[in-house]
Design goal:
The chain has 234 residues and is of the alpha/beta class. It has a single domain, classed as ComB-like (putative 2-phosphosulfolactate phosphatase), CATH 3.90.1560. The protein is built from 8 helices and 11 strands. The chain has helices spanning 29-38, 50-59, 84-88, 104-110, 125-134, 154-167, 174-183, 200-206; strands at residues 2-7, 20-24, 43-46, 63-67, 96-100, 116-120, 139-144, 147-148, 151-152, 216-221, 224-227. The strands form 3 sheets. It has a 6-stranded mixed sheet, sandwiched between helices. The protein starts with a strand and ends in a 7-residue tail after the last strand.
C-alpha cells in the first residue's frame, strides 16, 4: 500500500482522481459528523456553500443544518454550529444533516470523484483504517484540511499519521496523537477567552481516539455526496 499527503490550502488546480482519499478534519467538521451519526442521524449531506445548503434544506425532509464559516463561527440561521459538543446533546434520530463548513466539506467536494472517499477524524480513525484495508486499497491519499497561514494543521497530520501507522500494521499509542491535537495551533485556541466560539468540550471530544467503530465513507447518491453510518456506533 502506497501513501501520499496533500494539503487543501496549497492546492491550486484540480487534482487527479485518486484511488482512495481520506479527507481529515479533526477540528471540527468530521468530529461533529461522527458524533451526529452516533446520535442517530440518518445521513450527512456535505455541501460547499451556504446557498447550496439552504436550497437542499428546502427540499430534504427531516433535515437540520450544521455549519461554520472560516475561523469557527456558526452560520447565522443554521440549527447548529460546527460543534461536536452540541451534537452530543441533541436528539438526531432519523434526521438528515446538511453540513457546510470552511474546510472539511470543501475537501470532500474537491475529491468527490475518487474511487473511495472517506471523511475522517480521530473518533473513527481505526475504523477508517479497517475499512480501507478491507476494500483492498493500493494507494491512499490523506488530505490535510486544517493547515492555514496561521495554523500548523498538526491536528489533522496527527490523524493521518495514526491511520497510516495502523495500515502499516503498527500498534501506536493513541494518546500521543490526541496530545498533538491539543498542542496544535488550532487546538490551543479552544477554551480561551479570545475564542468564545471554540469550547473546550469540542476539543476534548475531538481527542477521543477510536471512540466509534464505524468509518464515514462519502458516496454519491442522486448527484450529491452523502455520508451514512455503515454500522452501529461503538
Amino acid at each position: 500500500m502506497r501513501f501520499s499527503r496533500l494539503y487543501l490550502n496549497r492546492l491550486q488546480n484540480q487534482p487527479a482522481h485518486e484511488d482512495t482519499v481520506v479527507v481529515i478534519d479533526v477540528l471540527r467538521s468530521f468530529t461533529t459528523a461522527a458524533v451526529a451519526l452516533a446520535r442517530g442521524a440518518r445521513a450527512i449531506y456535505p455541501v460547499d456553500g451556504i446557498g447550496v445548503a439552504m436550497q437542499l434544506l428546502a427540499t430534504l425532509p427531516d433535515s437540520l443544518s450544521v455549519g461554520a464559516v472560516a475561523g469557527g463561527d456558526p452560520v447565522s440561521g443554521f440549527d447548529f454550529g460546527n460543534s461536536p459538543a452540541a451534537m452530543e446533546q441533541a436528539d438526531l434520530r432519523g434526521k438528515n444533516i446538511v453540513m457546510s463548513t470552511a474546510t472539511g466539506v470543501r475537501g470532500l467536494q474537491r475529491f468527490s470523484r475518487a474511487r473511495a472517499l472517506y471523511a475522517a477524524s480521530l473518533l473513527c480513525a481505526r475504523a477508517t483504517a479497517d475499512a480501507i484495508r478491507a476494500a483492498g486499497a493500493d494507494e491512499v491519499c490523506f488530505v490535510i484540511t486544517g493547515e492555514w497561514v496561521d495554523r500548523d494543521g498538526d491536528e489533522d497530520i496527527a490523524c493521518a499519521d495514526y491511520i497510516e501507522a495502523l495500515l502499516c500494521g503498527e500498534t501506536p499509542s493513541p494518546e500521543s496523537f490526541a496530545r498533538r491535537v491539543r498542542d496544535s495551533d488550532f487546538g490551543r485556541r479552544f477554551g480561551t477567552a479570545a475564542h468564545p466560539r471554540l469550547p473546550v468540550a469540542d476539543l476534548e471530544l475531538a481527542c477521543r481516539v477510536d471512540r466509534y467503530s464505524f468509518a464515514m465513507p462519502a458516496r454519491r447518491d442522486g448527484g450529491r455526496l452523502v455520508i451514512r453510518c455503515p454500522g452501529p456506533a461503538g
